[in-house]
Design goal:
globular, alpha/beta, single chain, five-stranded mixed β-sheet, Nucleotidyltransferase, domain 5, about 170 residues
Length: about 170
């Protein structure tokens, strides 16, 4: 199955393609609302042949302008996925961290270290790392695990609603 992982952010969206290539969509130099178009268009260019997208959900406690911007980004990307007919699943940050590290409160360094230890992967930034872990979780869920994780960590995926939207 061709799975894409997306760690959405208005300034630095992490992307993991089905072949496990990762990149970051950086938009800090773009006017605020136009950032959404940049993110949407870049993801659209890589959607052909994708069967499923795994999105990281909002971080709990996000407020103000950051919450508003992330909500707009999620809305634009989810609308894009619906337009392309690509189903998606939402994974909470805590579930992803617990899956990757066995600690739902793991920091960025722990996620990066776990990716190196399990998948022999290094990343330019934590956005790419999180997108990669989303891809890995999706592959694991569909029975195409890239490597073996302890059962206690794999069981964290049981908390995810794997019924794809829309």
């Amino acid at each position: 199955m061709e799975i894409m992982g997306l760690d959405l952010s208005i300034t630095a969206t992490g992307v993991c393609l089905p072949d496990r290539t990762t990149y970051t969509i950086k938009t800090k130099t773009v006017d605020r609302d136009r950032r959404i178009n940049v993110i949407r268009d870049r993801i659209a260019a890589d959607l052909w042949g994708v069967d499923l997208v795994i999105l990281e959900d909002f971080t709990s406690g996000l407020m103000g302008a950051a919450s508003h911007a992330l909500g707009l980004t999620h809305g634009a990307v989810r609308a894009l996925l619906m337009d392309f007919g690509v189903p998606y699943v939402i994974v909470s940050p805590k579930t992803l961290k617990a899956y990757a590290t066995d600690n739902g409160n793991a920091d960025k360094a722990a996620m990066i270290l776990a990716a190196y230890k399990r998948g022999d992967r290094e990343f330019r930034d934590d956005n790419q790392c999180d997108a990669w872990w989303l891809h890995v979780a999706g592959q694991d869920q569909v029975g195409e695990a890239l490597f073996t994780l302890p059962q206690v960590q794999r069981a964290r995926l049981d908390k995810v609603d794997w019924t794809p939207a829309p």
